[in-house]
Write a structure and sequence with these properties.
Blueprint: H1 2-14, E1 21-25, E2 32-33, E3 49-53, H2 54-59, E4 63-64
Parallel strand pairs: 2-4
Antiparallel strand pairs: 1-3
Length: 69
């Protein structure tokens, strides 16, 4: 039983999901998200460039930048 518990614990802790981070222009008004901080789509940004998760950016209603398709 101890071996099964140890194996189960190892399996639970070994799967670590990596959350992809993306960049958006400012806290409001952005329409697209970018994988690269140096993307052409961010050159016109007049606000602070913010790093958020893909899920968070999609939750804001943002879509992927056309330069990064």
């Amino acid at each position: 039983m101890k071996k099964l518990t140890i194996v189960f614990f190892i399996l639970l802790t070994s799967f670590n999901t990596v959350e992809t981070k993306v960049y958006i222009c400012g806290p409001t008004g952005a329409k697209k998200y970018h994988y690269s901080e140096n993307c052409r789509g961010l050159t016109a940004c007049r606000h602070q460039i913010t790093k958020v998760s893909v899920a968070q950016a999609q939750g804001y209603g943002l879509t992927l930048c056309g330069w990064e398709d």
